[in-house]
Amino acid sequence: MAIDFSFSPEVEDIRLQIRSFMQDEVAPRAAEVEGDDGDREAYIRVIVELRKEAYQKGFWLPHMPEEWGGMGLGPTALAAVSAEAAKVRIGPYVLNCQAPDEGNMHTLLHFGTEAQKENYLRPLCEGRMRSCFSMTEPEVAGSDPTLIQTRAEQDGDEWVINGHKWFTSGARGAHFAIVIACTNPEAEIPQARNTAFIVHTDSEGFELVRDVETMAGGHNHCEIRYTDVRVGKDAILGELGGGHKLGQVRLGPARLAHCMRWIGQIEMALEMLLARAQSRFAHGSYLSDKQGIQWMMADSARELYAAKLMVLHSAYKIEQGLDFKQEVSMAKHHVANTLWRVVDRAMQVHGALGYSTDTPLAGMLQQARWSRFADGADEVHQFRTAELLMKAYNDTGSINAGVGGLPI
Ligand SMILES: Cc1cc2nc3c(=O)[nH]c(=O)nc-3n(C[C@H](O)[C@H](O)[C@H](O)COP(=O)(O)OP(=O)(O)OC[C@H]3O[C@@H](n4cnc5c(N)ncnc54)[C@H](O)[C@@H]3O)c2cc1C
Predict the structure, then answer these.
(1) Which of 382, 374, 362 is nearest to 259 (CA)?
(2) Which CATH number fits domain 131-237: 3.90.1150.10, 2.60.120.1690, 2.40.110.10, 3.30.420.10?
(3) Site to substitute for ligand 1 among 136, 337, 365, most atoms within 8 A of C-beta
(4) How far, in whole angstroms, is CA 407 from its chain's centroid?
(5) pLDDT tens, position by position, 360-400
């Protein structure tokens, strides 16, 4: 039997070490400085101190290979570590595996020239720089990058970028942005219109317009105008016209990395639901004795179980170099929706307490809402899943390759 659902003792050991580090050291320090009225300087100081500690313990860059200073875990072990780290909001920052830097590191590792790796990837890995990814535009549907209007035009040895972006997460404080711009609007294949550029955020013409206020407040999701921003040809990341492909390569593992972190959040919400239901008494018994509440528990357990299997199987496919598009799409849709439903159920069971900001649930629900449309809206993943399912059936006469390609 080749199917084995356990990790090696080494990986299990690291997972438990990360769990203890998060529970015993990161969570209490985060609780001291988190909250809307918190002192931002104190918050950053705590993150910097915890990062040093994480680095010294070897809990650094779980997603990167060892030659870049990472833990060299591989995608499946990464799932275990990321889920533990995400149980504390600042956990991924402490391990230097937060979005969007984590996705940008993958992108630079995959597509960067040697010089780009030295100038951008190395400082990111060493925690000396931060970055952002600037693709979505307010004027056109972010779900369809072939519509991107930001233009990059060649002028001698330089490229001149003009455009308008928003929801460029992490832009405030970032040293550079990976900007997706249209370089050839006439390209026969729409997917060959765009190119990725590395743009320094202190370049002339880079204007950070505002931190877009969201239903969860301001979280550094910025609106940016690019006006005659000039970059050299060495700023092109990957191939000319390869921006769409780069986005897809970046987004596959990055989507799954989101799912790994969401699993940690789902687990935390379900544990809170159980604790509350077993301690809150109403109408003659504990909430946990009532069938309506037990159904919430059972539904959440079943959905979380499926979420974990999907994430691990997708990670396995990435690790084995197998095609993972269908699995990651289905996982992204399922895990995002499970996150939304389980956090909502936990809030329901907590009543007014859940709606208050005395527990993390209110903040978790706000974050859970965007998971259903960022990095591919539910409906986009659904139509892609249906397309690949039909392709599998039409090419082979079987749906198997469209439903995970499992040996049953
Ligand atoms: C918290 C957060 C962080 C983000 N960070 C970044 C970032 O760092 N960099 C970046 O570039 N972008 C970022 N984004 C933007 C995100 O990637 C986009 O929101 C996403 O791609 C969807 O694009 P849109 O918002 O323009 O929605 P639209 O593309 O306008 O879609 C709106 C809705 O239309 C429906 N829809 C779209 N296409 C179809 C279809 N084919 N079939 C059926 N229904 C469809 C879906 O219901 C979808 O939710 C972030 C967004 C959020 C909320």
Answers:
(1) 374
(2) 2.40.110.10
(3) 136
(4) 30
(5) 999 999 999 999 999 899 999 999 999 999 999 999 999 99
